[in-house]
Amino acid sequence: MFAARPLTTLRAIAVTASLPLLLTACGYGSEAAKDEPAAQASAAPADGKKLSASEVRIGYFPNLTHATALVGIQEGLIAKELGTTALKPQTFNAGPSEIEALNGGSLDIGFIGPSPSINGYVKSKGTNLRIISGSASGGVKLVVNPDKIKTLDDLKGKKIATPQKGNTQDVAFLNWISEKGWKVDPESGKGDVSVVRTDNKVTPDAFKQGSIDGAWVPEPTASKLVSDGGSVLLDETALWPDKKFVITNIIVSQKFLKEHADVVEAVLRGTVKTNEWINANQDKAKASANAALKTLSGKELDPKVIDPAWPSILVTDDPLASTLKTESDWAVKAKLIEQPDLAGIYDLSLLNKVLKAAGKPEVSDAGLGTK
After folding, report:
1. Angle subtended at Cα 184 by Cα 236 and Cα 238, rounded to the nearest 5 degrees
2. Using one digit for the tens of pLDDT, what is the confidence trace for 25-34?
3. pLDDT score for 28
């Protein structure tokens, strides 16, 4: 099995999440969700100064792994820091559509998983985005049919779902398989384990019908599978040093960062305060996130799903940069991507300014920051 080695295990994140109306988090997909909260603005910024932009467009997914955005917008904690600058939320169902919006100039700041962050940065040759903060860690589990799979070794010869080829969960599972000494073709998913790329919104039905034997998926899909009779065989946090790995980042358009650093700083003050509030008020925060999901999708999560899912996700300001680098290395190892140049993908200067002002420790970019 996989002991804590210097971050050479595979992780998954992102990403996605399911339930009928709750779509993916860090996977690859398509369109922006239609239902979006109204713009928010308060009378004046927290520091009393008018900011340089009249509005800021913030994208996120209707997922528990985007709890900072769900709660920060629902409770008005981010808008409070923006004052008269209107917060205009946009929801997305997958990373590529959010990256496309950022590239196209219709989005300024986004909550997104590590794989789309890496892909967006590399494909633009480092010109379109920066990671400016962390948001969440954890929330990824291997859930199996306990009648067919009782130990990790039993996975050999079975059909295990991941959200999509090359997304963070898929890369994590492929790396885990490799560490076991088993062989799987990363393109087809065929081999000692059958890796079945299945959209999270249909994974629960596939599991109930028996067409898959388990899934390596993020919350709340994992807890949905458990509620349908599955058993958690492995929590990915157990595979990581310090039991932490990035599942959600905050990114910004480089153009917006250059022109409106004061607005970006205000958003980060809001996210830092939101994470502090979530960690201090877990029950209230869980209810707030579920209320936001109901607003966005028309349906809240059942208690038997959200209650076990919520505590497995850690909101954090730290982007856990070294774990993003490890994820990238795993994708290279699986021959899903070529070795990327990630130098400059992080700019944590404003975050560290906000953290210092709040009396909190600064965070590291693991040598991948701007010069």
Report:
1. 10
2. 343 233 444 4
3. 27
Specify the 3-state DSSP secondary structure of 151: coil
The DSSP secondary structure of 86-123, one letter per residue, reads EEEEEEBSSHHHHHHHHHHTS-SEEEE-HHHHHHHHHH
- Torsions phi, psi of 90, nearest 5? -135, 130
The edge-to-edge listing of strands for the beta sheet with 109-112 is 86-91, 55-60, 109-112, 246-253, 129-138, 313-315
* Interstrand relation of 246-253 and 231-235 (parallel, antiparallel or unpaired): unpaired
Strands of 69-206, DSSP E: 86-91, 109-112, 129-138, 140-144, 159-162, 194-197
| Token couple for 46 | 């927290």
Whole-angstrom Cα distance, residue 142 to residue 217?
A: 6
Question: What does the alpha-carbon distance between residue 160 and residue 11 come to, in Å, rounded to a whole number?
Answer: 15
Are 171 and 334 spatial neighbours (Cβ–Cβ below 8 Å)? yes
Phi, psi of 30 (to 5 degrees): -130, -95
AA letter at 249: N
At residue 8's C-alpha, the angle toward residues 200 and 325, to 5°, is 75
Q: What is the pLDDT of residues 145-188, one digit of tens each?
A: 999 999 999 999 999 999 988 888 999 999 999 999 999 999 99
Burial per residue of 137-168, b for 16 or more beta-carbon CB atoms within 10 angstroms, e otherwise: bbbbbbbbbeeebeeeeebeebbbbbbbbbbb
pTM here? 0.85
For 310-361, what is each residue's pLDDT tens digit?
Answer: 999 999 999 999 999 999 999 999 988 889 999 999 999 999 999 999 999 9
Return the SS3 of 276: helix
Amino acid 280 reads A
